[in-house]
Design a protein that fits this description.
The complex is a heterodimer of chains A (112) and B (114). Chain A has strands spanning 3-5, 9-13, 18-25, 29-37, 44-49, 53-57, 60-65, 70-75, 84-94, 97-102, 106-111. Chain A is an all-beta fold and 112 residues long. In chain A, a hairpin with a 2-residue loop joins strand 9 (84-94) and strand 10. The radius of gyration of chain A is 14 Å and the shape is globular. Chain B contains no helices and 11 strands. In chain B, strands 2, 4, 5, 6, 9, 10 and 11 form a 7-stranded mixed sheet that branches. In chain B, strands 1-3-8-7 form a 4-stranded antiparallel sheet, with no helix packed on it. Chain B starts with a strand and ends with a strand. In chain B, 34% of the residues are buried. Classes of the chains: A mainly beta (112), B mainly beta (114). The interface between A and B is medium-sized, with 27 and 23 residues.
Chain lengths: 112, 114
């Protein structure tokens, strides 16, 4: 089966940098995605890594190490609006089709 | 309408009621999903439809019954639910042939079972 581990909660100061780690176990691995969900809202896609290394999109960056089954999401210049839950998710091949399995989510609180 | 829409946004029902959740996607995707989101639990995949054919059930109780009449519409029929079924039910769609399989979520239906 698939399993993902990420911290349940993280608190960081406005303007700072925060890193949210994710480790996973899966077969048929394609890549690692990150989603953001604000309270009362729907999850929205942030990034996807299929190859080792760092992908940068504005203030957000995502990293993957396939050999370590590990990735992280890096948020820079934190803003209050970044307070949300962040989910890592593995894309994998299972039962003849592609699917996405989500982690439990990390609740990020940005404080002044 | 754009993206993925869901109705109703909130639903309160008794354990003996029958109700249906509706999802519609306007993205031209070929796969649709139902997820259950409960507090302090990962998003739980309930059903997957690929090209209008159900490909995953994920051991969901029979009191949840999905229907996918075409590639744009997905329903979740509910009957004789239990209080522990109270949760946020999210619909999503994706273009399954893309390796990253990015999920586009609707706003969800907040379900309360009394």
């Amino acid at each position: 089966g698939q399993s993902l581990e990420q911290p349940s909660e993280v608190t960081a100061v406005e303007g700072a940098i925060v890193q949210i780690n994710c480790t996973y176990q899966t077969s048929g691995f394609y890549g690692l995605s990150w989603y953001q969900q604000h309270d009362g809202g729907a999850p929205t896609f942030l990034s996807y890594n299929a190859l080792d290394g760092l992908e940068e999109t504005g203030r957000f960056s995502s990293f993957l190490s396939r050999s370590d089954s590990y990735g992280y999401l890096l948020l820079q210049e934190l803003q209050m609006k970044d307070s949300a839950s962040y989910f890592c998710a593995v894309s994998h091949y299972s039962g003849g089709y592609q699917k996405v399995t989500f982690g439990i989510g990390t609740k990020l609180q940005v404080i002044p | 309408e754009t993206g993925v829409t869901q109705t109703p946004r909130h639903l309160v029902m008794g354990m003996t009621n029958k109700k249906s959740l509706k999802c519609e996607q306007h993205l031209g995707h070929n796969a649709m999903y139902w997820y259950k989101q409960s507090a302090k639990k990962p998003l739980e995949l309930m059903f997957v439809y690929s090209l209008e054919e159900r490909v995953e059930n994920n051991s969901v109780p029979s009191r949840f019954s999905p229907e996918c009449p075409n590639s744009s519409h997905l329903f979740l029929h509910l009957h004789t639910l239990q209080p522990e079924d109270s949760a946020l039910y999210l619909c999503a769609s994706s273009q399954e042939t893309r390796a990253r399989n990015e999920q586009f979520f609707g706003p969800g239906t907040r379900l309360t079972v009394l």
